[in-house]
Amino acid sequence: RICVITLAEAHPLLQSGKTIKSINYQISANCSRLQNKVSGKSKRGAQFLTELAPLCRISSSDGEEYTIYSCIRGRLIEVNENILSNPTILQEKPSTEGYIAVVLPKFEESKSVTQGLLTRKEYEEVLLKRLTSS
């Protein structure tokens, strides 16, 4: 029932051989994802995220900046602080150690979240359509 947020295989940071310069969990002057303190079984203190809530900003060495969004509603359980000191694991191991965050959707919404996900094959078809149309 938990969701691990990672970069998609088709993300420009993973495709074009860019170098990640920095990762910043400071979303605004008053909001840092690093200040998320969770305790207990009910995950008290966790920041609540909407689908459009930014999780972090990633800057590449060519000056591009990418904002990574939650994409699901739920409580922010954890951010991966390891990528701050070693940003290359985001590119080297994006689906394991290079995850960005862990989000726990509301129990009653978790079924609709998983039903709306694409299968691996559907995702590859979407990517193929995107490539052929551009």
TrEMBL record:
Superkingdom field: Eukaryota
UniProt keyword annotations, A-Z: Cell projection, Nucleus
GO biological process assignments: dendrite morphogenesis; regulation of actin filament polymerization; regulation of filopodium assembly
Molecular function GO labels: actin filament binding; actin monomer binding
Gene3D superfamilies in the record: 2.40.50.100
Compartment list: Cell projection, Dendrite; Cell projection, Growth cone; Cell projection, Lamellipodium; Nucleus speckle
Alphabetized Pfam families for the sequence: GCV_H
A cellular component annotation (GO) from this entry: lamellipodium
InterPro entries: Abitram, GCV_H/Fam206, Single_hybrid_motif
Family note: Belongs to the ABITRAM family.
Classification via PANTHER family: PROTEIN ABITRAM (PTHR13651)
Name used for this protein in its record: Protein Abitram
Species in which this protein is naturally found: Chloroceryle aenea
Source lineage: Eukaryota, Metazoa, Chordata, Craniata, Vertebrata
